[in-house]
Write a sequence for this structure.
């Protein structure tokens, strides 16, 4: 073997040995640092993890207790969930503060950063934040609750859910209507609770007895169990039309079965009036032709 090749091989082995030695030194330093960190902060890390786990468990337990207590006191479900969530978040925040304290970290700088970030976010997210503010106002003021029938901003339906950002309504067809909360606060709200009013008129002939017709209609409406007993149905002579006496009807039926019940009652009234031989006249116009001499 040539001398030059031998020297080159020896030099290569020497370089590889130094490189391996350098890597081993680096690894050893890393291991030493990990050991030092574990020795110094191991208990703190374990303590912080335990604090977070215990805080989460206590938060979930407290949330469940508050929900059951609110349910026992018959507090609105939306307000109950909001209070329970706030309590859970407060407990978790307290646990995080304790966990950070295990490492000697103060939360003052974080509060300053969060405050600055919140200010910037509030400027960029005025729309969503205004919905959240309006949602809190609705939850605390509870002008309506889940299950109520409301009419607001031209939309009507049964309140299905109230969140911080929006209120969800459902109609008889199962269609969900999502309304941003900022569009609700400050508006006129019609709340008829679980029922929706029916306002109807039935025309009878001037030759028929209106008292008899009113009795027939009242009996027919009373035969439907869906009609609310309170407020009591109202039936009476409402107006004198051009070709009929108009009997007015006002009663309340469940919003979720509004059209179904309305159509059934209308058909029953029609049949009952026919059986009672009460005439429902067609619209009529009387035309008179007067003849005379023109001088």
């Amino acid at each position: 073997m040539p001398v030059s090749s031998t020297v080159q091989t020896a030099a290569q082995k020497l370089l590889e040995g130094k490189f391996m030695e350098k890597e081993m030194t680096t690894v050893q330093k890393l291991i030493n640092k990990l050991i030092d960190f574990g020795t110094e902060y191991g208990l703190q890390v374990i303590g912080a993890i335990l604090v977070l786990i215990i805080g989460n468990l206590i938060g979930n337990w407290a949330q469940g207790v508050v929900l059951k207590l609110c349910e026992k006191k018959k507090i609105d479900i939306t307000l109950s969930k909001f209070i329970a969530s706030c309590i859970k978040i407060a407990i978790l925040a307290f646990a995080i503060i304790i966990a950070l304290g295990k490492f000697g970290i103060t939360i003052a700088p974080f509060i300053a950063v969060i405050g600055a970030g919140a200010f910037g976010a509030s400027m960029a997210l005025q729309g969503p934040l205004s919905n959240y503010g309006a949602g809190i106002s609705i939850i605390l003021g509870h002008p309506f609750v889940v299950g109520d029938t409301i009419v607001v901003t031209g939309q009507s339906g049964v309140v299905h859910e109230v969140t911080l950002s929006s209120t969800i309504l459902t109609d008889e067809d199962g269609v969900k209507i999502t309304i941003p909360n900022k569009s609700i606060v400050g508006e006129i709200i019609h709340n008829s609770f679980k029922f929706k009013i029916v306002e109807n008129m039935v025309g009878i002939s001037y030759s028929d007895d209106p008292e008899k017709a009113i009795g027939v209609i009242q009996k027919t409406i009373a035969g439907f169990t869906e009609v609310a007993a309170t407020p009591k149905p109202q039936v009476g002579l409402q107006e004198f039309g051009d070709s009929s006496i108009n009997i007015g009807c006002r009663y309340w039926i469940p919003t979720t079965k509004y059209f179904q019940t309305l159509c059934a009652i209308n058909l029953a009234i029609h049949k009952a009036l026919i059986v009672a031989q009460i005439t429902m006249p067609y619209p009529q116009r009387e035309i008179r032709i007067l003849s005379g001499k023109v001088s």
Residues 63 and 87 are 7 Å apart (CA to CA). Residues 143-192 form a domain with the SH3 type barrels. fold (CATH 2.30.30.60). Residues 3-72 form the longest helix (70 residues).
